[in-house]
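Many introductory courses stop at the sequence. We go one step further.
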Amino acid sequence: MKHLFVCTGGITRSQEAVLVATKLADHYEFKDYEADYFGIDSGQKPDSEVFTKYDLIICMEESHKVDLMKKYAVPEEKIRVLDIPDEHSRSESKLKEILDKVLFEKLEPIFHTFYTVI
């Protein structure tokens, strides 16, 4: 199973989401789990085929979903949105703690639903 986490710059939220998701995958003993991250405004210019290798693409904000669908023709049914706004600076000392808590709360139901349906 491969997940791609998307945020604005690919620096904070999506990278932290990869760490949290990997912990969840280990907790649920999911075999062959892989996660990666991408920043919509990171300057990367992948072609649309890059996104086909992921089973699920998880965006931090609705605007990321819209961008993926418009710029890269990613099908809507392949995208989930966590609604985690970019409201904390990277230098904020509690950012990792906040993201870990929020991401775990929002990712756990996605993992549970996604993996019990398959």
